[in-house]
Structure formats: structure tokens, C-alpha cells
Amino acid sequence: MSRLAARYDADVDAALLRIWPKARIYHDREYTRDRADFLLVVRGRGVMVETKVKSDPGVFRGSTLPPLLERLQRDGRRLVVVLNQGDPTPARELVAGALGDKGCVVVWSGPEHDGELRDAVEALLHQMVRHP
């Protein structure tokens, strides 16, 4: 993992705890392409979090995501991909094609984007609420 990616993971981790101070965050210490970087548990419900770092502001196609998406399709888990910069349109289409509304891609590069991150995760968490 590059220093930039490690720093970004730490920044996203801090943002998740800032947004949900009572959340539990589990980190996958082993790097594999078919497992997400974090499991965020808020109010007893979990969302997988995958961070992606681009060194340029170009288009993010999500070419490294298929192994993870295939695993999450089988597991039925929800996923938010957090991207540091760039145009996420192709990756959003890829995630939607694989997971439907159980996955999304957000661009987050600092606290000014906490609202977008919160909204994306809350939408996924809301899907798991059982209504009588």
C-alpha cells in the first residue's frame, strides 16, 4: 500500500468516526482485491467501505473493483466506495450494475465532503431497517 493510500485510509477512518462517533470500524489487515478495506457498523448494521486513491483528477473506471463486487453479490452486503478525486461516473455504473442500490461511489477528499459520505452510507443503512 502506498503512503498516499495509507494516509487516505486514515483520513476516511477519522471521517467515519467524526460522522458516527459511536460506530465500530473493523479494518481488514490483509490486502486482497475481493475484500473491502473497512466494515463500518452503525446502529447494529454494517456497510463495507472500500477506499480508492487516484493520483490524478481523471476518470475513475473502477477496474480493480470486480473481484470485490463479485464477492459482495454472493454475500448480499452493502458497499460504499470512497474515492479521493476524479469523475466516478464509470465506476458508479459498474457498482450499480453489480450491486444495484446496495452499492454506491462517493468522492470524498476532506471534511467538506462529510455530508455526501454521510448521505451515501445512511441510504445504505436505511435499506436494512425492517418495517413492521
Notable characteristics:
132 residues, alpha/beta, five-stranded mixed β-sheet, 5 strands, 39% helix, 20% strand, globular
Structure explained in plain terms:
By secondary structure, the protein is α/β, with parallel strands linked by helices. Helices cover 39% and strands 20% of the residues. The chain has four helices and five strands; from the N terminus they run H-E-E-E-H-E-H-E-H. Helix 2 (66-75) links the parallel strand 3 (45-52) and strand 4 (79-83). Helix 2 (66-75) packs parallel to helix 3 (89-99). The longest helix has 17 residues, at 3-19. The chain is globular.
Blueprint (SSEs and pairs):
Blueprint: H1 3-19, E1 24-27, E2 38-42, E3 45-52, H2 66-75, E4 79-83, H3 89-99, E5 103-107, H4 114-126
Parallel strand pairs: 3-4, 4-5
Antiparallel strand pairs: 1-2, 2-3
Helix pairs in contact: 2-3
Strand order across the biggest sheet?
A: 1-2-3-4-5
State Rg.
14 Å
Number of helices, where a helix is a run of at least 4 consecutive DSSP H or I residues: 4
Q: How many β strands by DSSP?
A: 5
Based on secondary structure, the structural category is: alpha/beta
What level of helicity do the residues show?
25-40%
Give the gist of this structure.
The chain is built from four helices and five strands, in the order αβββαβαβα.
